[in-house]
Amino acid sequence: MNTNRLDTDLLIAGGGLAGATLALALARFVPELSVTVVEAFPLSPDALPADYQPSYDARSTALAWGSRRIFDALDLWPGLSEHATPIRHIHVSDRGRFGATRLHAHEHDQEALGYVADNRWMGLSLMRALMGTSVNWLAPAEVVDMTPVSGGVRVAIQRGNEPHEVNARCLVIADGGRSGLREKLGFIARTEDYGQNALIANVSTSDSHGFTAYERFTEAGPMALLPHGSPARAGHESALVWTLSDSELSDILSLSDEQKCQKLQARFGWRLGRFTRIGQCHHYPLKLTTVAEPVRPGVALVGNAAHALHPVAGQGFNLALRGLMTLVEQFRRAVDEGLPIGDLAVLGRYQQLHREDWQQTVQFSDSLIRIFGQPLSPVAAARDVGLVGLDLMPGAKRWFARKAMGTGGRKPQVPSQALLAKAGEHDE
User: In which element (H, E) is residue 284 found?
Assistant: First the structure.
């Protein structure tokens, strides 16, 4: 059996949103490194339509303002923004109680607090940008194993019936939390089951969303409605994240679309008028997953492979983006200092710098779910007071807004000036 061999500086397992963004950032800021991406789905220029037409059932991701700044630095935002709906207002409320707080972009001198973009459009935008780089793609293919060797790692790849071996200085695992590669390589993930499921769908309402995102905490669990559709005109389409128990999920999935809308109406209320349509429903169990030690010599975990959060707070992908830029910063520094990019000192700096951000974000996201999931009257009264307090206290409200916008960390949330300067040198 023949084995094909390939050498690369960096191998990325997974070419989804996290892996593709990392590849683009490396091509932009550390072009000295050769980068290879291994992706399970086939890639082709034919998959990049000249005229993109969003689907009503397209799944989407909430992008914080800090993430928009990262995409700006990658020269990706001008194209990506063509189909990114702005979030200009956030309304957080406790269903059936008086507590509520409101955030507005104009209070922070921003055009938006965040955006909602279709996952497919983000993927296409990344593919277009990567077509003009030297990043090498192996697709369809899958990383099946890894062995430490002198100076890096040897990665076993299966491409159809053909095995490959790739010698790399560093392997980055960006294929999500359910591929099994993380566990196969011995990384220990800590998982807390929320005992709930997320139902994801796009819905239409009789009233316009007014570019407002609604975070609604109910006695049965949290839910979110995010503005979706046209970036320029406030329409009637929203992206729904609905938290349901196992039995509730089963009941909802058995209903007709009209009955689903009625159930949603009863749970959410009438702030957007009547629910008139619900699209294709996707669902998955909700778990908080973290990996305490996401690096080892020659290997690093990023994105959902390193941490997966509850989706209602909208923090997961934004946290992943900040982690990717932290990793790129460390690779840039390693190249400048003549250090091996897979050295534990290099990857350990990434872990140390990103740790504070993910710990704070996990705590922020998890505490929201746990506090607002308590039905007891004293707890409910206390959180109502807290929501009203956020609305009345400028300092607390600014802190909450920074968390929502992804700009609340102590370290820079976008590439540093030094990194941007290096990129400029290579562009000349």
Answer: strand 282-291
